[in-house]
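We modelled the chain as a single entity of 117 amino acids. Its sequence is:
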Amino acid sequence: VQLVESGGGFVQPGSSLNLTCETSGFIFDRADMSWIRQPPGTGLEWVAGIWSDGAAANRQSVEGRFTISKNSAKSALYLQMNDLKIEDTAIYFCVKGTAYGLNYDYRGQGTQVTVSS
């Protein structure tokens, strides 16, 4: 199993970023997937998830700003992040095995998102 994130960066508050997770080594259509993050100096937190049937959910603090989606033909997972806030600064990871919470079985290497003025 391989999960490779990209799309992070250094942006100002109010900006947008689109994260991508390219996957291989498993049947993507059958997997529940999530984005999780680790803010500086704190532990991991679940951000958004999408079940194999396409249903999705977000943590409350990103509701209306972040959108998780997937492209089964490309075996790719996305996280569109709009109106970024300083508190969104974190390493963002793509994980397989869960669409809610931190009970995943594989995790990518992460991509850094820094929001600062």
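As a brief sanity check on the tokenised model: DSSP finds no helices and eleven strands in the chain. The chain has a mean pLDDT of 97.
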